[in-house]
Every structure is written in C-alpha cells, then in structure tokens.
Design brief:
Strand order of the largest sheet of chain A: 3-8-4-5-6-7
Shape of chain A: globular
Oligomer: homodimer
Structural class of chain A: alpha+beta
Bound molecules: manganese (II) ion
CATH topology of one domain in chain A: SH3 type barrels
Number of strands of chain A: 8
CATH architecture of one domain in chain A: Roll
DNA sequence: ATTTAAATTTAGACAAAACTAAAAATAATT
DNA sequence: AATTATTTTTAGTTTTGTCTAAATTTAAAT
C-alpha cells in the first residue's frame, strides 16, 4: 500500500500535530525524521498527491482523514508488537522501541488481528500509551504530568512521555514503574525538584524526571 | 547490515545451489527473483564486491562462506516466524509464507533468540523444513520423494517440496498432513499415479502430488 | 519601512534497485 | 567450421528517497 518512508512520515506528522492545532512545520518534521528540510518538502508533496495530507506551501502540513487512519494503523501495530516483545519475549520496556519500529511495517491484517487476540486485546503498550483498536479508536486517558502536581497530591503512574532507553533505565534503577502509586511529599522552589514517595521508597527527582511521568489522580 | 534486496538474493542463491554443484546461472536467479537477467547481473556484482558471493563473468555465481552464513540466518528467521504464525497465531501452513518473507528481514539478534526460546527451540518449520540453529547448523533428514517409493513401501510424511498455497490446500482437503503414515498400495504404469493409504483414508494421487511429498522410511 | 534572519522551497545531483534495448560471449546446430 | 540460438553483460533510463547549494518566502529586528 504505502512505502516504509511514507508510513514513517505519516506517523511523525501524527505525533507532532498532537501538540498544537497549527500545521506541522517542515523543520519540525525534518527534526523528527532525522532528515533535511528539503527532503521533507519533497515527501510532503508526494503525500499530498496521495491525499494523505493537506499541504499548502509555507503553511505547514495537516493529516487528512485517510492519512490519520493510516497513521493510527501503524501506531496500533507498533504498540501491539511492543506488548508482545515485553509480555512474551522477555524484552524490557527500554529495548522494544527500535524493533517495533521495524515490525510496525509488516503488512498483514490477519497477523495483527491474531496478535491482538493472542495478547488478549491489550489496551495500553509497555509505556502506558493507548493501543488503537482495528477501527483506529482509542480512549485518551486523563493524565497529568507529575511536575504539575502539588505537595500532598498523589496518584498512579500511568505513562511516560520520554520513552528513551536512558530515561526508562533510570526509572528501572529507581524502581519507578507503571501502576505504582506516587505521592508528592515536598517540592523545592529553587529548581522544582520533588521529593516523592513511591510505595516503600522515598527519593528526590529532578524536573527532567517529573516532566516526563504521567500520573492519574 | 544488508539491504532487503541483498538478503533476498542470498537466500535465492542458497536455494538454487542446493540442486547442483555448478554455479547458479543468471537466468535461474532472475526466474527465482521474478526479475530480469540484467538486474541480476548488477546485483551479483554488488554482492561480489561485498565478498558475499564468488562471481566470474558468464560463469555463474557461488555463495562465499560469509554469504552462506548470512543466507542461513535469514532462513532461520523465516522458518521460526512460520512456526510462530502456525503455533501461536492460528495461521494454517498455506498462509504463512508471504508474511514470513517480510518478518525474516527484521534485524534483532535478541528477537530471534527469544522467539526460538518462546517456541521451545523447534527443529522444523510447518512444511517440514529444518530450522538452522544460531550457528547455522541443521540436520539434513534422509527423506525420499513419495514418487520414488514402490508398491508396498511405507513411511512417514516429513515434508513437502512444493509449498505453494494451492498444493498445501489440496493436501488439507485430502487430510494429508505432516507426521502421517503413508503406504503405497498400487502404482499405475501409464501415468505414474499412485493409490495410497494414509491412516484411515485411501486415495489416488497424481505424479504432481507424489513428486512433492517427502517420506521418511 | 527597511534590513536582517530564519524557514521553506526549488534546482540539480546521487545511490539503490529496477527496467529496456543493444552488444558480446557461450552453447547448440547444421 | 560456420551459422544460429541462447545466455549474459553492458549502456543508458527510471523511480524513490535522499542530499547540497541556491533562491524564495515569511518572520523578526532594527
Ligand atoms: Mn515505541
Ligand atoms: Mn510505546
Ligand atoms: Mn516459507
Ligand atoms: Mn517453510
């Protein structure tokens, strides 16, 4: 149907457009895709010809309905494969991303519907991100960044914003994991760092950490 | 490491060189790869530059030791994925090939070693073909084509030569499956067709069938 | 309102992997 | 041995996705 490159662009546009209502800029896409702006312009034109995006020169790019659907299909596959790798193949959550980046492009409806069934229809991937169903629907959880909580508030860790291997390994080392209860014990005004209670442990974490952890109150 | 196309060529050369000790001809490779002879020449030169094959103009192509190793790695992945699809995702043996053709190119050592473990180190794929281990070693079963058996001889069905969906569906329809015992009851001299007893069933099969079934006596 | 800076697009080139058409080498026939 | 047929290679294009360098447009700063 679509090339590897086209699929990756659609996914990147999807992720970038979440942050604002404006069109996705050429430079932002180039950064996300690790390529040059000129290459982005070329590809965006092609996607526009295929009616996957809406694009006007210098105005940024928007996903069309069919582009959005295609992006969600790839995201669904990516996240299902991540679940498979963690649940069945003993991968840890910091190891799955690159492999899922490849697996998400395998073309087979049956493969993905059977995988979904095999995994017992998971609702979230190992990083807490929602898995769209076959129709592209998914529930957006009402979650808050840990950095937005005040002293005394508590909730459950339901997701991470930064999914880099480095950050995830830091969390592992400090026994910070999905599903655990976190309470803000104190916040330092100077640098915004927090003292948090996470189950039996109590530790101080920087804003780089608190701004990348999602809490459900 | 290697491109999709390079990997597919190596695999094709591996499969073609099994049949004879001579080099694999350009035309044979073109046929196998569903492409033109001129494209094959180009690619073979590239593989030769990378020391994956030994190639002299007009003399056919041979896999080098490193080319052979690479081919076996891909075949290992292909067959492990086929087992996964059949054993875990309810695919039938005639549905797995195309998907495995894509999955075999996913690059991750851990993925494949964990998949191997998850499947409990299978020795053969759903078509009876041996699965090389991580070192590329595998046992070649001593098997005979059903067409080479004589009346009265019997053995176990251990593999199929033709793995096309059409042939496999024919076998399913007639309850001919891996592991079953087959006995040759009679052979028609005119067209070579055989009357075979397979467990409870008795049926007549053509040479197109008998020449594509492997038996272990 | 100009000027300067930043973002974006165009023009031209390149590598990978394919193709067609023509040339060259090898194999098969007379 | 000479001719013909087949196989294989070369030469020249094409497509996809990328790049650099230059031109253009938009945004920011005097
Ligand atoms: Mn991921
Ligand atoms: Mn994820
Ligand atoms: Mn196969
Ligand atoms: Mn097989």
């Amino acid at each position: 149907m679509f090339s590897l490159s086209e699929e990756n662009y659609l996914k990147a546009i999807f992720h970038l457009q979440k942050h604002s209502t404006a069109g996705v800029s050429t430079n932002a896409l180039a950064e996300e895709m690790q390529t040059k702006a000129s290459s982005v312009t070329d590809m965006v034109k092609k996607l526009s010809d295929k009616k996957l995006v809406v694009y006007k020169k210098y105005q940024g790019v928007y996903l069309s309905e069919s582009g959005r659907k295609t992006a969600l299909k790839i995201i669904r596959k990516h996240r299902l494969w991540e679940v498979f790798l963690v649940e069945k193949l003993n991968f840890s959550w910091d190891e799955v991303h690159d492999v899922a980046e490849e697996l998400e492009h395998i073309k087979s409806e049956k493969l993905i519907s059977e995988l979904d069934k095999f995994l017992d229809y998971p609702k979230r991937d190992p990083h807490g991100d929602p898995i769209p169903d076959a129709q592209g629907d998914f529930q957006v959880a009402n979650k808050t960044l840990l950095s937005d909580l005040s002293t005394g508030e508590k909730g459950t860790l339901v997701g991470v914003k930064d999914t880099s291997s480095e950050f995830l390994k830091y969390l592992d080392k400090n026994k910070i994991a999905l599903g655990k209860t976190i309470e803000v014990m104190d916040q330092e005004k100077f640098d915004g760092s927090m003292l948090i209670q996470i189950e039996k442990n109590r530790l101080r974490v920087s804003t780089q950490v608190t701004a990348n952890i999602y809490i459900k109150i």
